């Protein structure tokens, strides 16, 4: 983090218990760095949306403290809230309003002076400029999703929350939207996203946080997480099938697959891959011939599912 610059988001000791007695969040501590893309992952009901809603000032915490760019979101609510843009899951828009009118109104809500040039740039970046005079009710679901992002960016926030931003959006629009996200990060905007498309988090995020049953169970650099927990596999296609592993190879983390036509060697820790050359030699000496080999690595989704199951 640059010297003298506060975290984009700082959360400490955050708890939320609803009137029903349901404890949605407990003892959340989190810092999000300026200019990073942070992915918040968790199963349905884990507390992702509640956490975002508290940071954005929509829901009141039971206890704890939240700061946005150094501003307390209770004591300095107006300053803190003006630095946040939120793209919610729900497609709630003013059906009879025009695209241009709604982004202009959203900017005015935060007391920002009119800036047609900024709004034009936002709409062009999101491929909405040609639709600026159209009523929102005439837009497709994907275009409405883009409009939510445009509204959130209308007042030039420092932090943008994307709560399931590509839900219901087709593949082409999704790719376009992630290009916009990359551009925002390049311009210094901090992006915090929740997504069910874990491959997007794997592609986009700098760091990953996993929330489960209201608790933040892990926060780690994505690359370090995948190095630490991402198992790799070497798959060998055999020249002819075998029914069982030869004696002496049973302790090599080898498994038979594809009805004996494949051998799978699983390794994960750094340095274990160096054993592959020795393994191949041993297989040859045991009379096992293979016609092809390739490697696979665990995805972030595999790691996420493992972490959630492990902590249940």
Describe this structure in words.
- The protein has 312 residues and is of the alpha/beta class.
- The protein has helices at residues 48-55, 77-82, 99-109, 116-125, 141-153, 171-186, 198-204, 222-229, 276-285, 300-310, and strands at 9-17, 23-32, 37-41, 63-68, 71-72, 84-87, 159-163, 190-194, 207-212, 215-221, 232-238, 254-257, 262-267, 290-297.
- It has two domains: 9-227, P-loop containing nucleotide triphosphate hydrolases (Rossmann fold, 3-Layer(aba) Sandwich); 230-310, Alpha-Beta Plaits, CATH 3.30.70.
- It is 32% helix and 27% strand.
- The strands form three sheets. It has a six-stranded mixed beta sheet with strand order 6-7-8-3-9-10, sandwiched between helices. A four-stranded antiparallel beta sheet has the order 2-1-4-5.
- The two termini are 34 Å apart.
- 31% of the residues are buried.
List its salient traits.
312 residues; alpha/beta; Rossmann fold; Alpha-Beta Plaits; 2 domains; six-stranded mixed beta sheet; four-stranded antiparallel beta sheet; 10 helices; 14 strands
Which CATH first-tier class of the largest domain would you pick? Alpha Beta
Describe the strand arrangement of the main beta sheet, using strand numbers.
6-7-8-3-9-10
Computed structural class: alpha/beta
- Measure the end-to-end span: 34 Å
> According to CATH, what is the topology of the largest domain?
Rossmann fold
The proportion of residues in beta strands is: 25-35%
For the report, how would you describe the main beta sheet? 6 strands, mixed
Quick rundown:
The protein is α/β, with parallel strands linked by helices. It has helices spanning 48-55, 77-82, 99-109, 116-125, 141-153, 171-186, 198-204, 222-229, 276-285, 300-310; strands spanning 9-17, 23-32, 37-41, 63-68, 71-72, 84-87, 159-163, 190-194, 207-212, 215-221, 232-238, 254-257, 262-267, 290-297.
